[in-house]
User: Fold these one by one.
Assistant:
Number 1:
Amino acid sequence: MFDTDVIIIGAGASGLMCAIEAGKRGRKVLVLDHANKAGKKILMSGGGRCNFTNYSIEPSNYISHNPHFCKSALSRYTQWDFLALIGRYQIPFHERDHGQLFCNESAREILELLLAECRKAGVVVQLNTCIDSVERSADRFHLKTGNGNFSCQSLVVATGGLSIPKMGATPLGYKIAEQFGINVLPTCAGLVPFTLQPEDKEKFSALSGIAVPCVVSNNRQSFTENVLFTHRGLSGPAILQISSYWHAGEEVVINLLPQVNLETELKSKRQQKIKNKLKTILEGYLPKRLISSFLPEDLLERSLQDLSDKQVQRVADQFHNWTIKPNGTEGYRTAEVTSGGVDCDAVSSKTMESKQVPGLYFVGEVLDVTGWLGGYNFQWAWSSAWCAGQYC
């Protein structure tokens, strides 16, 4: 039996960050992971460049059954704190839209930073180790694994969610919570593309590869970003964002032309006696293939001068208020995050420790905290893990 102060299950962003902070306090820390490499999701994130945080982090960028839970951690370890760490390692980065921050070179630099900090703090990372069981007796936790048995005073669950199973995602963290009587809220895929109803898929599949700046909304939220048509349905940043606020059976409204008022534009051109076909005029605003998927050919071939006010209004409405009911999502296979998870009401927002099981901590994505697309989920990993690392 190998005995230590702290065992962290999961060698991802939150697990490594927590290990660093606990190690700095002089705690003897062991990180266990079933994968053959640490930080696999870090390496693939942001197209291999890792969108590691955002210049603008607010609690309103997160979804949780308990919307106040994330406030404490985000205020105590901020994006500026992580940027200071990046600065110490002189990792060059750049800003993209909406304050998103990416490595100039490779996500590997973030992982190497974390592993270097672990080494400095005396943390041991053991890979290829599957957890068979977790038990608790007196004030210690006992773990049985295929690579020996371990015991510890503090156990940190940093197992992530169910997203991207091919990267090794498992429900282990939720099972540990349930084993100890901790409530786990229903999980679903978040930040995920939509699939379309069969008739819509047939109608719009020819648009695969087209991306259009849009406003996508439902009755709870609205996002202004690109929408990408795919051969299965709809993707792109705006769709991924709204998917976290979408429930099965609901409609989504998409404004395909948010930068202009099409009705006003068309009426103005008609007053100017412009005699072009409707199709020719619309091609000045939107891709050809998209236009012909939304309007019948006989209408598109007509001169703008021949259209009534009502017809102009209907044409504009087609593009400004495209209402669609997704068939579903692509699920965990392509989801960036898992919504739901360990109930935040059962965990201290200051320490990330279970309120009912002393010494048991939960950090990162396993908790019911889901960030927006754009570095918010990494910041939650850093912040929640930092907090747990001060106490575990």
Note: The mean pLDDT is 96.
Number 2:
Amino acid sequence: MKKRINQYVSWIGKNDWELKKFHGDEFTTTQGSSYNAYLIQDEKNILIDTVWLPYDKEFVTNLEQEIDLEKIDAIIIQHGEVDHSGALLELMSQIPNTPIYCTNNAIKSLKGQYHKEWNFKPVKTGDTLNIGKHTLTFIEAPMLHWPDTMFTYMDGEAILFSNDGFGQHLASEFLYADEVKQDDLWNQALTYYANILAPFGVMVKNKITEILKMKLPLNMICPSHGLIWRKNPEQILQKYLEWADAYQENQITIIYDTMWNSTRKMAEAIAQGIQNIDKSVTIKIMNTSKDDKTQVMTEIFKSKAILVGSPTVNNGYLHSIAGSLEMIKGMKLKNKKASAFGSYGWSGEAPTQITEFLRKAGFEIINDEIKQLWTPDNAMLQDCVKYGEELCQKLK
């Protein structure tokens, strides 16, 4: 269904209310998502991006109701991932000679995924496409979040089409960010950044700084997922600069897995110790085998320090902790502190292994790990409380 943005630009995407997982099983989408494609109708007609493969026929059918496909003069693919390019096969089967403007890396990506020799037109930063009353300017944005990514700026209307930059996984009957509940909007925007763009913070800062130096008028930012930034669109640019700058809140997140609840009891006692010292700090306690990993990573992203706990099993830590540690390493977080803890029966290597992993992942280790043999009694739990108190003192 088309939604008109202005005289020249329409949203022609797809709201996916049913979407629960994204990037395979990696990202949980609690409020669905949208695949935003845009149709520009000037002297030339330009399609910017498509939708995810399962909706390819629906997309092309809807597009045909808005414009004769033969009258589409060019397609701009800003990023080759299938949630944006998935309808190309269906569309190009009907208009096979239509030029596709994209980066050189996107050509490699699209050829690698679809194995087609379409009419590719490679572009780089500063290249332009005149479409009549307006000119489109291409801005390469590598690693936001793929090497092939680019943005497209439409002069006159002052619209930045930003693909995966500045988006949210948020399906909505509304079109604009100012029309939805702001808590939902910003929670989804932060979750999206933490789980998709956090590893590329340096590139994010550099690209936004570059765009700001261009001094482009900016009326709207139109991402490829979620809501369009219409009122004060610069606010999301400033938030990205904040999030990309070793972001942290006054929060400590404790993640753990447990077999017979001993490590859980330790986690709760450590949390009590932290609270004894600083009642203003937000403490999140999350079981990595039960809590959603997308939310776990979001809370870690927000935190100034994390504690990671596991019992020792087969001379190592539990598999949900192993998976979480790998995800944490991939986020490439900066300026965060960490410590480890865990219970054990006869060997007890897990906390030391966790400490070394976190150190190699760039965390500052603020305390030696604490281990408890078998099920902690009241005295052992008091040791954990003291451990939390000492750790909190070191964070002040």
Note: The mean pLDDT is 97.
